[in-house]
Structure formats: structure tokens, C-alpha cells
Amino acid sequence: MKIGKDLVAAAATPMVLGILAEGESYGYAILQRVSELSDGELEWSDGMLYPLLHRLERLGHIEASWSASPTGRPRKHYRLSPTGATVFAEQRRQWSVVSTALQKVWADRDGGRSPFALGGAPA
What we know:
Elements: H1 5-22, E1 25-26, H2 27-37, H3 46-58, E2 62-68, E3 74-80, H4 82-109
Antiparallel strand pairs: 1-3, 2-3
Helix pairs in contact: 1-4
């Protein structure tokens, strides 16, 4: 299934902040975590992730530092800042409202059945 660009863009910031709330990480590992969390449905590119990381760093939501990777090559690690933790908590509240509203509208349409019954996606 192809996820629309608008939906991917809307979810990108809370997704990255949520991943960094789990702990410090670096670009490739973040891309892998997005894929893992979405069961492979979201395949972000470097060209999408790195501008987002740079913007979040400029805004003060994340902090970054360089360290050596196991191969010895420098790797930039990102972590959630205190401001970013506050922003993430607010985004979680907002997405919870959106998710609940979508679940209700889908349940109303489907006669009260869960849109995710039997592991399927909403119709």
C-alpha cells in the first residue's frame, strides 16, 4: 500500500520525536525504526529524514553530537531535548484526538466493528 505524501509528512515530526523519546539514535537507525514500527509500510528516504532532523535541531526540539561508529566513521547521534519532550507530549495529545475521531467515524460507518478487525486496514 502506498501511504500518501501528506499523511507521511504530517506524521513525520511526531514519529521522529517518538523514536528519539525511546533513546538516542542516528539517521540510519531512525529509518530502520520507522520501517519496523510500520511493518515495512513506511519507507522513508534520507532526503526526507535529514531535512526534518536539521529542522528539529534548529527549533531546539532535538540535540545532536558526533561520535565514532563501530567502523570508526563519524556518526551524528540525535536525542530529544527538554523542549522536544514537551513538544512530543503535546503532539501525542493531538494525535490521540485525531486517532480517536477517526476510529469513531470508521466504527460508525462499519456498524461498530473495529476498522482493524482481523488485522486488516480500515476500508
